[in-house]
Amino acid sequence: MEKTDFKSGLTKSVNGGFCYRPFVSGAPCTRRWMFCLLLPLMFFSIACSNAQSTGNAGGGEVILINKADFLTKVYNYEKNSDRWTFEGKKPCIIDFYADWCGPCKRVAPIMKELASEYKGKIDIYKIDVDREQELAAAFGITSIPLILFVPVDGKPQAAAGFLPKEEIVEHIDRLLLEKKDSKIQ
């Protein structure tokens, strides 16, 4: 049986050894209880933040995708390595980015605006090249940001570096939505 001296926080165990257990306001094991209560709260908040960041393009959000998502939603280059076959139902934009990249940080809010403006017409995805190095290597991506415009029919076209919103809109209209009055040739 243990005996605890509440003033010093020392507990004497059955075998005669002492261990230090700090107390808050004289209540033993308070830190353990706080840990048990806060741990589920931490997991819940992480799960909520992940759900928000991945979003839903149908709802006007930019979707963070990985290699497996890319293979099913965009192009399965493992199965069709000799020719481009788009796997999606709507045209899409893919923003290849990295968290440390300054121009990528400037493109991110533009993509979010475009996802809202083109809701239901196109899907907007983003791929972290640091996490998806194999995917970046498969497309030979050496500079970021790189924006890939993927039409339903035809081959995708890429634009490297920061693009202002107006220029991205022109690319969307001409390449993805095939509007004839686009300014970009």
Number of helices, where a helix is a run of at least 4 consecutive DSSP H or I residues: 5
Strand element count: 8
**Arithmetic mean pLDDT:** 78
Shape: globular
Explain this structure.
The protein is of the alpha/beta class. The chain is 36% helix and 17% strand. It contains five helices and eight strands, in the order E-E-E-H-E-H-E-H-E-H-E-E-H. The strands form two sheets. Strands 4-6-5-7-8 form a five-stranded mixed beta sheet, covered by helices on one side. Strands 1-2-3 form a three-stranded antiparallel beta sheet, with no helix packed on it. The N and C termini lie far apart (84 Å). The relative contact order is 0.12. Residues 18-27 and 33-57 have low confidence and may be disordered.
Topology:
Layout: E1 3-5, E2 10-12, E3 18-20, H1 30-54, E4 63-64, H2 67-73, E5 92-97, H3 102-117, E6 123-128, H4 133-138, E7 146-150, E8 157-160, H5 165-176
Parallel strand pairs: 4-6, 5-6
Antiparallel strand pairs: 1-2, 2-3, 5-7, 7-8
Short description:
By secondary structure, the protein is an alpha/beta fold. It has helices spanning 30-54, 67-73, 102-117, 133-138, 165-176; strands at residues 3-5, 10-12, 18-20, 63-64, 92-97, 123-128, 146-150, 157-160. The chain is built from 5 helices and 8 strands, in the order βββαβαβαβαββα.
